[in-house]
C-alpha cells in the first residue's frame, strides 16, 4: 500500500503541494489530474524521493520513502518513475536500452523479458534500431518498457502517452494498463488526458490550488462533476441555472424554454459540436447534423 500522509512541498519557499494525503493499494491505478502547473509532475517526483519534503511522510508498505537528505541514491528498487522528459541511451538499440538494467548473468531471462516488454509497447520491429534514430513517441515507449523491465511494485508515470500519435495511442494504452493490472503493479499516472482515466483508473485525484480538490471514482466524478474544473476535464460543458450540463446532455427539441441561436458547427466524427448563444451566453451542445449560423433551436436538458 502506498500511503501518502500530509505531504507538503515547496520550491524555494513557493508552496506547490500542501497537505496531500491519499492511499493506493497494490495493483491500483490512480490518476492525478489538474491544470498545467498544478503540481502533478512535482507530486510524482516527490513520491519518488527526488526532493525532501517540508512536512509529511510517504510509505510503501512499511518502508518510508526518503528524499536526498536521508537517502544517498535517489529511488528504490520497488519503484520506477518515467519522467515527462525521458533519458535514454541514444547510441545503443531499443532492446539494449530496455534490457540495460537486467542481469546479464541470466541471458535467457533477460532476452525473454526484453521481448515481452517490446511486445507491450509495440516496438518488436525496432529491437535492433539505435534509439537516437527514433521519434519522440517511440522513445517514450522505450522509456516505459525500460521502467517495467525490473518488475517494480509501483510505477509513477508522467503523461506517459503525451508524445505518442493517435494511431498508436489507443492500443498502447490498453497494452500498458493491462500489463500493469495483470502484474499487480500499482500505478500513479499524471495526465491531462481523460482517455488515460476513463476506462482505466480506479481513482482520480484532482489537484487545484496546491491541494487535493477531490479524490473519487472517475465515474462518480463524471456523473457529479460539482465544479467547472472537474467538468472541463471530461469535455465541453455549460453552466445553466447553476447546474453543470455537458454538451451531450442538451438535446434539440421542437419547443422548450431554452432557445439557442447557432454560431458555429464543428465536425466531430459521429456528431457535430454546436456553439451557440443562450440568453446571451455561450452554449455548447451536440447534434447529429450541421446547422448554419443564425439558426434558432430549442434545447432540453436530458440526464
Ligand atoms: P504540472 O506537472 O501539473 O504541470 P509542475 O509540477 O511541473 O506542474 O509545476 C508546479 C509548479 O511548480 C509550477 O508553478 C512550476 O512553475 C513550478 N516548478 C516546477 N518545477 C520547478 C523547479 N524545478 N523549480 C522551481 N519551480 C518549479
Ligand atoms: Mg507536468
From TrEMBL:
SMART domains: AAA (SM00382). GO terms for molecular function: ATP binding. Pfam families: ABC_tran. Residues 2-234 form the ABC transporter domain. Keywords: ATP-binding, Nucleotide-binding, Transport. The keyword Transit peptide does not apply. This is ABC transporter ATP-binding protein. It comes from Postechiella marina.
